[in-house]
């Protein structure tokens, strides 16, 4: 009786702990993965509908020759906004939203590791999108294509491109943040027992995608910043008269752009790897080969960017390296296709709506893949480059490889997302409209392109033999639109009025189907233990190794929201993490940053000061509330069983700091690569002389090393009485060394006689030093957080782990400084 | 190991790869298997990025200042670089194959076996990728 009463009380306390606010307050304060995921998906879907309408306008214009429905300027704006919207505001954010929602459910976690940062990322994305679309209010709509090639985007446009650059940079920052979030979750928040060989394909994929985003999206952020500086400050990165090079933009853009295609395709393929087994009642065939395929695809996608540049005059041997890489990646994609076919062959396929989209995906993606092999060949690509053949190819890959899987996934997980059932009949009708409409639209474009019609032209003269195929494409586009309307109405209607869904309508194999649909706030009252790759089809593991987890995380803990942490390879439970509740702080800094962007675009600089102040207050309040939360949760009952403040790779903070450090190094390395690229293509480098201040630069290096070492020294947390003093001393030394380094970097930046508008060398050195100034501020902020942690808590462990994270960041700042110094002073001497 | 044991471990292998229930999914001894997975990836990246950067940057730098392009030297460097990366992939595959035989023989440790299978197969795959890249300097001259 007493035991029962205790259990009931514990369950009630636990439920109360995980209760969230409702209504408008929930919209602005909820930070849980499901809420943020839904926000991402709804926002991205709205952008998708807007981008689709833009496509319809373009198709109406191209329906017949010499049409004057749209003028050339409007057409340019439409294809720019259509491409930018679909690539930056729909595809990646929607997949990140889906991953936000599903990933914790698939890996058995109660939330993502940094829920507030996750909400921050969403608001950055939304504000980035609003900035881009606010260009319509000012009649300054970007019109240089979604790839924004220079010199078009540099010299021949008004403020329109500034909207594009600032809006999309915010959206890309959000994507990088989300990538770090997902990667850390997959590495250390998997359910006990979910070792790497049992990880769902979606988790493997998102881990690979996170790696790709961190490596590939940073170059676009850097490139956008350089282009904005060229446009506003007058730097010379893309000005070939003073050492710049327009091709640098193409390199940086496609270093991002090609992996971006796989960032969209791989999650799409992963969705299919879940839909096909569930709807065939058959385990996914060749799981290890699928893992190899997606890992290989992720790696190889980083080495294909030059195949977008076969017509810019590169040496044959350079192009041949990238042709070889492009051919290799087709094998990896082929492996996955065969795995799905074998799964279908061995199973008992049910032709449900998700399965129809999955089959539509396989057919369409294989066709797009074959034309991909064709354009990977230099000789063929040079013939069809910038024709409608390429438009057909990439729509087959993107709509086939990403949109069909998204629709498959939406129908597959709809019950889980909403708890409602949609109309099967309307779902089937929508599928056939979209499938037939798609092939009617885009298959003729292969012919339009082969017959010579170039891309990005607003009209064409009659008599070229391309009238009928263009009309056919337009008819197909409206059939797709009809399908999307049916799909949208069906899903929207079912979300509000649909019949209740059962928990597991498809008898799915993966872990998310073991909880209710929709899942409760905490996902699982008792954290699941995983014993196989298909946990929903197999018994839970009763291994006594997991008894502690069962005890602590069955309707517990009741004092704090928490989930267990596990080891990255074998998923053995070894720590736990607090999860925050609702808070409004994550929305404040993005609004501030949005105001800064608006101020720069409108040249109303007082607003920039307000925005900056708002962002700083937001970050400060966030940090303060974070430490307050940690202060309240001093002794949760689970702390005796699972340590909440472990150091090293046992902590989410360590992984977060490591990934953040990696993004800083990738960013500065991209700047160094850009400078080296300009150097080897310039007849003279440097144009006058190098910065050449070895004493100053050496001093900065020593100070940064000192800040790193002091922070590292402060990471210990023994129980001795001198521990607090040790922390304070390490903070004082790191803070002083960091502040001195910052001051000297500013001195180097402002007193080295660098004029960024003079030539490309000075632009490079000036920007590198400016970037280093920002990095030093990042390091100092980290030390500030250690101080806050030390002053707010009596216990030593909090300050110790914060000090460790600060050491990682200071280490990255020091590495970046070495790269900067080598680029400004050593490379000009070492390379001709 | 006698023949009977060998046959039994071969029968168990598909179940091991299927990640089924049972004892033995531990992280012990997973470092080398993990390396057989990661090292070929790095080798392929070095092969492609190195071939591109060494060739393109050297040729561009030489031509931009009017120096003669070091074609012969570059060709040797490219071939040597890719031969070395190919060797890394082959060694990784060999290590994976040897450990895989031992891993299967010892039964259990499905995680380790999984990593070895993935490492072995990806080593072969990336070795093929390096061959495709490394063959080019034999066909085209550097800076062409």
From TrEMBL, chain A:
Keywords: Cell membrane, Copper, Electron transport, Heme, Iron, Membrane, Metal-binding, Oxidoreductase, Respiratory chain, Translocase, Transmembrane, Transmembrane helix, Transport. Its EC number is 7.1.1.9. GO terms for molecular function: cytochrome-c oxidase activity; heme binding; metal ion binding; oxidoreductase activity. InterPro entries: Cyt_c_oxase-like_su1_dom, Cyt_c_oxase-like_su1_sf, Cyt_C_Oxase_1, Cyt_c_Oxase_su1_BS, Cyt_c_oxidase-like_su3, Cyt_c_oxidase_su1_bac, Cyt_c_oxidase_su3-like_sf, Cyt_c_oxidase_su3_a-hlx. It is a multi-pass membrane protein. The chain crosses the membrane at residues 36-58, 78-99, 120-141, 161-189, 201-227, 247-272, 284-307, 319-346, 358-380, 392-414, 426-451, 471-492, 583-600, 606-624, 652-675, 695-715, 727-749, 769-788, 800-822. It catalyses: 4 Fe(II)-[cytochrome c] + O2 + 8 H(+)(in) = 4 Fe(III)-[cytochrome c] + 2 H2O + 4 H(+)(out). The keyword Heme applies. The keyword Cell membrane applies. It is found in: Cell membrane. Pathway: Energy metabolism; oxidative phosphorylation. It is an enzyme of class 7 (translocase). Pfam families: COX1. Signal peptide: none annotated. It comes from the Bacteria. Belongs to the heme-copper respiratory oxidase family. This is cytochrome-c oxidase. It comes from Labedella populi. The lineage of its organism: Bacteria, Bacillati, Actinomycetota, Actinomycetes, Micrococcales. The gene is ctaD.
UniProtKB/TrEMBL annotation, chain B:
The chain crosses the membrane at residues 31-54, 74-101, 113-135. Residues 1-25 are annotated as: Disordered. Keywords: Membrane, Transmembrane, Transmembrane helix. The keyword Transmembrane helix applies. Residues 1-11 have a biased composition (Basic and acidic residues). This is Uncharacterized protein. It comes from Labedella populi.
